[in-house]
Design brief:
Structural class of chain A: alpha+beta
Strand content of chain A: 5-15%
Strand order of the largest sheet of chain A: 6-2-1-10-18
Helix content of chain B: 25-40%
Strand order of the largest sheet of chain B: 2-1-5-3-4
Number of strands of chain B: 7
Number of strands of chain A: 20
Largest sheet of chain A: 5 strands, parallel
Radius of gyration of chain A: 25 Å
Oligomer: heterodimer
Distance between the termini of chain B: 61 Å
Helix content of chain A: 25-40%
Largest interface: A-B, 86 and 77 residues
Radius of gyration of chain B: 20 Å
Distance between the termini of chain A: 39 Å
Chain lengths: 666, 250
């Protein structure tokens, strides 16, 4: 079946304007009688809930954390892109659009991405108006920096806490609406099923995580802003609670999952230190503005470093291999994430990894410290500054840009990154795949929408840095509030939806039975046992590099693990009360189905593109080799009742405005 | 290393609680404090016992979920870190570690080490915002330059993670550091000026209604704050509050 993305007619740069001018509206009196449920309160969810409430809809918002301010958007570090061209470096809406399509390796939708670039500038205006304290220069105007995959500086930032500041901005807008009574906020609630009546999304079943009660909530539309599913790998930069459950349960009710194998492995994370590890910590991509990535050129230096007989600072320049600068001179250390990650893996696989496990490379700030120190000395009129003075001044500048990141690194690794290079290695970070949505951000279930990382639409096979914050806020502030009206215009006569409908009872009973199983199965092993096993299968066989044989093995192994999980998982505590072990069991049960689908999707896609690297499909130089003739489509997977037998639907991608070519950053 | 843990267990908000002893063995110094508790919980579940409930999410010191009193100090013995960033290298073999929830009237215990901090949300809802609706037609972001020093100070105040360590550390159970950080952020920026006076009055009123204590300049909040929020913000909020109260129309 072909998917209809409902992209408006007309020239690319006029589609969104024309859409907004002609989309159906819901008058203010009718909005008061329409309920919308927003699940998740990260950037997409908080901004959507606040905006919808401001417009007059009756909104209910849910988060599983104790406050909407905790959503994992808060941990985004480096920045948010916007085509403002404040730096006068030739940026434009078209360039942001082009960089995003190319960065996504020609696997995203032109119309969606262009719209994203168009509204990007509004996001910055909106956030500044809310009092978000972005970094400014001495003239009081906003500062910008560069991120990977671009040759302009279009990234707005607030030190290494940009996500925190943007989320707190959206949270403040949401709080204002909660205070006014326009949003009913349900903290510590988790959606466990989507309820459909006559084929339309009409509500959800949620568990009150404090009392354990199952609750029915009805609405005229349900908006899923539930983030990504990177925790299927167990170890990722996601928060411990980040999960796929809401999205997956919508999938099982008819929402198609698109390109689930498109996973972003972020090149600069703190390496794994042992089996006890519960999560991985990102070191922002912004560090690649100033940090240079290298490994020793010679194996004997690698051996000496691993044996702790040599320190990295003792290795002279001519014995270092700045491999990104060597392989990609045009973009250097600022190549996109997929490319930087693969290059790190290539060096480590070749035996040049610099820590005991052989899985780490250096990210070195020493030359940036000297460069900034000299500039600062000039500013201060210190024309005869000593080397020590220059380094001290340079460290101050680096501290002002990245202070919190350096502090985080030192806490975890117990080494001072001002004195010695950081050690980093790629880790699972973001999922480009997600629920399939059309141009209006509606999933394949009428009345069910997906925004932010939960949908698949804008980043293709690889997301550029600082674009997740942009997309989350674009969807929530500027896209969904318009597009949802086109559906709700037909709902003005529906009236309140009763939660006594048999569909609600059936969904609630099914969820209750699933929860009860975890207590009645008499298992022996904690949830984490299975989650770690699943994570290892996914990382080894569906991670940075994949091949057909490994994926086929993974599918079999995941099926076996899933069977074992239901037989042998042990959940203690009570069903009717706070029980984090039960929450984990629910989430892992969904990861065990999603993982299989990711492997099937990766196996189906016989090409390499972006973060999806199939070893069988690469150029002689080891770069990804796309197959546009056969795979220039979105794979939308439909649930058929059995997780092992999904049905593939295709949406062909059409490029009318960009010439599709091999992606090069050389 | 091998450790003895003395952990506060409490079934629910109104149930009585008590300290229960546990032993953990083979703890690596590279583990975070919460990973050490993961080890304990894994063992408890294997034995069929209820795991220890605690709040945590990002495990990188920014979400503000984790909230433990460790050996009598909020977020443990180190400064400038949250519980999730505390590593076991800060302890030694044979140590006994006391682990308790935040203690404050305004933060009732939900279960074990998990508390209810919804009071912070309600203070935010009372005025912690700039009343600007979503629109694509706000001023261009560079239309109002903001002196770098003000922007930096506003940012420093805005880095509060809302964990509640300030309240838990204060002998009075005061939330002044948390509230003043938000009041300061907006008082320092041009965007916050229109509602400047109403904001401080409304947020302080809500803070008082929630049952937080008063500030008597002890300063424990600043010492224990994992984000180094300065007590100067409290001075600024007091000034804002006085000025708002002496305005003729008030």
């Amino acid at each position: 079946m072909a998917l209809n993305s409902r992209i408006p007619e007309g020239p690319l740069d006029q589609k969104w304007t024309k859409y907004k001018n002609t989309v159906r509206l819901v008058n203010p009196a009718n909005k008061r009688n329409i309920d919308v449920i927003v699940v998740g309160t990260g950037l997409a969810g908080a901004s959507a809930a606040a905006s919808l409430a401001e417009m007059g809809y009756k909104v209910k918002a849910l988060c599983f954390q104790d406050s909407p301010r905790r959503a994992h958007s808060i941990a985004a570090q480096g920045g948010i892109n916007a085509a403002k061209n404040y730096m006068n470096d030739g940026d434009s809406v078209y360039r942001l659009f082009y960089d995003t399509i190319k960065g996504g390796d020609y696997r995203s939708r032109e119309a969606n991405v262009h719209r994203l670039a168009e509204v990007s500038a509004n996001i910055i205006d909106q956030c500044v108006a809310q009092g978000v304290p972005f970094a400014r220069d001495y003239g009081g105007l906003l500062d910008n920096r560069s991120f990977g995959g671009t040759q302009v500086s279009r990234t707005f930032y607030a030190k290494g806490q940009t996500g925190q500041q943007l989320l707190l901005g959206a949270y403040s807008a949401l709080s204002r609406q909660v205070g006014k009574g326009n949003v009913k906020m349900l903290n510590r609630h988790e959606m466990l099923d989507l309820v459909l009546i006559d084929g339309k999304a009409r509500g959800i079943i949620a568990r009150n995580l404090i009392t354990g009660e199952l609750e029915r909530h009805s609405a005229h539309a349900v908006v899923l802003c539930t983030g990504g599913y990177g925790n299927v790998f167990f170890l990722s930069t996601n928060a411990m609670g980040s999960n796929v459950t809401a999205a997956w349960r919508a999938h099982k009710k008819g929402a198609w999952m698109a390109n689930p194998c498109f996973t972003q492995i972020h090149p600069t994370c703190i390496p794994v230190s042992g089996d006890h590890q519960s999560k991985l910590t990102l070191m922002s991509e912004s560090l690649r503005n100033d940090g240079r990535i290298w490994v020793p050129k010679h194996k004997e230096d690698v051996e000496a470093i691993r044996a702790k007989k040599l320190r990295p600072v003792d290795i002279p320049e001519d014995r270092r291999d700045y491999y990104l600068e060597r392989r990609y001179p045009a973009f250097g250390n600022l190549v996109p994430r997929d490319i930087a990650s693969r290059a790190a893996k290539e060096r480590c696989d070749a035996g040049f990894g610099v820590n005991a496990t052989g899985e780490a490379v250096y990210l070195d700030f020493s030359s940036a410290i000297v460069r900034y120190g000299k500039a600062e000395a000039n500013v201060k009129g210190l024309h005869h500054a000593t080397d020590a003075e220059i380094i001290a001044l340079g460290k101050q500048v680096v501290e002002s840009k990245y202070g919190n990141l350096f502090q985080m690194y030192e806490q975890i690794v117990a080494e001072n990154p001002y004195e010695t290079p950081m050690m980093i290695y790629p880790a699972v970070h973001y999922t480009m795949g997600g629920l399939w949505v059309d141009y209006e951000l509606m999933t394949s279930i009428p009345g069910c929408y997906a925004c932010g990382e939960a949908n698949f639409s804008d980043h293709g096979a690889n997301r550029l840095g600082a674009s997740a914050l942009m997309q989350g806020l674009a969807d929530g502030y500027f896209v969904l509030p318009y597009t949802i009206g086109n559906y709700l215009a037909d709902e003005i006569r529906t009236g309140a939806i009763s939660t006594d409908a048999p569909e609600f009872a059936a969904a609630e009973n099914k969820v209750r039975a699933e929860l009860e199983h975890f207590f009645s199965n008499k298992g022996t092993k904690p949830v984490d046992y299975f989650h770690k096993k699943l994570g290892k299968i996914m990382w080894d066989k569906c991670g940075m590099a994949r091949n057909a044989q490994g994926l086929q093995e993974a599918i079999v192994e995941i099926r076996q693990l899933r069977e074992e999980f239901y037989k042998d998982v042990r959940v203690t505590g009570k069903m009717n009360g706070m029980n984090p072990e039960l929450e984990k069991a629910c989430r892992v049960s969904d990861f065990l189905e999603l993982g299989e689908l990711m492997c099937m999707d990766a196996l189906n896609r016989n090409e390499s593109c972006g973060g999806h690297f199939r070893e069988e499909f690469q150029t002689e130089e080891g770069e990804a080799l796309r197959d546009d003739e056969n795979y220039m489509y979105v794979a939308g997977w439909e649930f058929t009742g059995n997780p092992s037998e999904p049905k593939l639907n295709k949406e062909d991608l059409v490029y009318e405005n960009i010439k599709v070519s091999a992606r090069s950053y050389k | 290393m091998n450790l003895t843990l003395k952990i506060w267990r409490q079934e629910s908000t109104n149930a009585p609680g008590k300290i229960v002893d546990y032993k953990v063995t083979d703890i690596s110094e590279d583990m975070s404090f919460l990973e050490m508790l993961d080890v304990l919980n894994y063992q408890l579940v294997e034995k069929g016992e209820d795991a220890v409930t605690f709040d945590h999410d990002c495990r990188e010191g920014i979400c503000g979920m984790c909230s433990m009193f460790i050996n009598g100090e909020a977020h443990g013995p180190n400064r400038g870190v949250t519980t999730c960033q505390l590593h076991m290298r800060s302890f030694k073999d044979g140590d006994t570690i006391y682990i308790e929830p935040w203690r404050s009237t305004a933060f009732p215990v939900v279960k074990d080490l998990m508390v209810d901090r919804a009071a912070f949300d309600r203070i935010q809802q009372a005025g912690g915002f700039v009343s600007v609706n979503t629109s694509g037609n706000t001023l261009d972001a560079n239309a109002i330059p903001v002196p770098k020093d003000d922007a930096d100070k506003a940012f420093d105040a805005a880095t509060c993670i809302g964990c509640g360590a300030c309240v838990a550390s204060c002998p009075n159970g005061s939330a002044m550091l948390f509230v003043s950080a938000k009041v300061s952020q907006f008082a320092l920026l041009p965007q916050g000026q229109v509602e400047r006076q109403d904001r401080v009055l409304n947020m302080v009123k809500q803070m008082d209604e929630e049952g937080f204590g008063n500030c008597s300049n002890i300063g424990a909040c600043e010492v224990q704050c994992p984000k180094g929020i300065s007590i100067e913000n409290i001075a600024r909020m007091n000034r804002e509050y006085v000025l708002a109260n002496i305005k003729p129309e008030n």
